[in-house]
Specification:
Oligomer: single chain
Number of helices: 22
Largest sheet: 5 strands, mixed
Distance between the termini: 92 Å
Shape: globular
Organism: Rhodopirellula sallentina SM41
Number of strands: 5
Strand order of the largest sheet: 2-1-3-5-4
Helix content: 55-70%
Structural class: mainly alpha
Keywords: Membrane, Transmembrane, Transmembrane helix
Transmembrane segments: 21-39, 93-116, 128-148, 193-220, 232-255, 283-304, 316-338, 350-370, 382-399
Protein name: Putative membrane protein
Radius of gyration: 27 Å
Length: 555
Amino acid sequence: MTRHSHPDPDLTPDHGRQPQRVSMVAMVVVFLVAFAIRWPSCGESFWVDELHTAWCAFADWGDVGTRAAIGNQQGGYFYLIAMWNRLMPEGVLTLYGVEAVLRLTSVLLVSSAAAWMVRIVTRTSGSLIGGVAAGLALGLESNAIFFGTELRPYAAIVFLSTAVLSVVTKIMDADFHHSDAIDRTGVVRRIGLHLVVLLAAAVHVTSLTVLAVMVVVFVLADWWRWRTNRSASFVVLSIHGVAGMVWGLVAVLWMQTHESLWHAREAWTSFATANSWTQIGTLWPWGALVVWPVLALTLWAGFVSRGRGRSGLGPVIVFVGLSVATVAIATLTCFVLSYIGGVALWHRRYLVASLPFLCGVLGWAVGGIASGRFGVVGLIRRHQVMSVFTAVACLLLMMSQQRTLGRLMHGETRLARRGEGWKAAIAFTRESAPKQDSVWIDAGLIEQKGQPIFVTDPRLEEYLRYVTGGPYTLGSDLRPMGVGDDALERWIALADESAGHRPNQQADEDSGDVPAAIITRRSIGPASILPPGVERHRFGRVTVLIRRQLGDGDW
């Protein structure tokens, strides 16, 4: 047998433009699959976090940044959503609904990222099979489905993380083929890498939990690669050194402008704190995206290439190593900071930039098997069969573990559910509550903690009722009020006093009446604990308590 490196037959130059056409078709197919899997979930009512984005999108242009900032968000993404909202024709909003039209931004971003993964992995592994596996993984992974149908910045982070991966692989791919110097394109790409990561940080600073680690890992690898070449080493150190100074300046400015957020960090520990090492294992589908693909590549390469060498796997191994190192370091760092240091960083949304890297690992492992770079001519087809088997098995394992497969088999198409019926709850209250009355809004926000029931700061009070300030409104005949801690208990007590006709000197010191209703996300016990004349109406995890007329004109 003749030993030689053999690329994927579908990507050889002998086919002329056919490989590019096939690759483009694959990208389009993956995009459509990712889009189709997300679109049915876009019509559901916004949940409370999305309603903050919608509140910003429906604001006057000059108030968009202010509304984003009071919700501890950076303004760039929200300005883009506000622009998108203004550009959409009224007929489109009426036809599809405001929820689907605004969430379409996230659907397009993640679907485009999935298609982009096809291109990235195909280019770097030489295997379209590996590229399709990576793209489908990002298209079908349940967290990517959730964030890819959510009106929040995290879909943009997935897209920008994919862009970062593209830039890094282009830099390293060029270095594999040009070992003597760094050309102008290499300089531009290295500068571009820092700019893309800076853009991701501008969209949401928590993207740096992953992307900053990736930059550090890449800079170390870049320096090591060129350490023996004085001119190239000088270029590398100059670019990354200047970028490091810029990053330091940006960090100082950010900390100065967000000092209040750091002082209020204790409030965030209720939902983003690690409490068990087992949480690492359930964070992502590690087995399907990392463990089994890498194990399959290792075993297959060892079995087929005994005595033949496997130098062609070098780039694949480098990209897999870079991705695994980035995600592992980022994950462990966030876990330790949260578990030991009490820093509220342990949440998938803060590590969502990991997803393209993890899907890339699957793609490169499959591509390494498919390319046949470590085998012989007679085994090329066997490589492809094995790569397809590995890709299908890992994708099915991932979808099975995340229950996506079972839900699809049962005909379920809405794979991302929030379960908060704010739209119906607000509409019901608008139609049912007596006019010219007040309605308390108890949205269960972190910012409510420590606040008095009647919030005196008008900006904070407006923020606490933002769920009724965007696309869902109570109308002009009702007065929504954002309330602080213990509002639910106080409302029930006031309703009880009103029903019993007891004196109520402290009924509603600011509004002068007993509120007609309260809309809350908090759990409520059995109906027996409610005062007479109070009705409970549930809309998913949102509940409306409303006073009904008892007789003689009393409410």
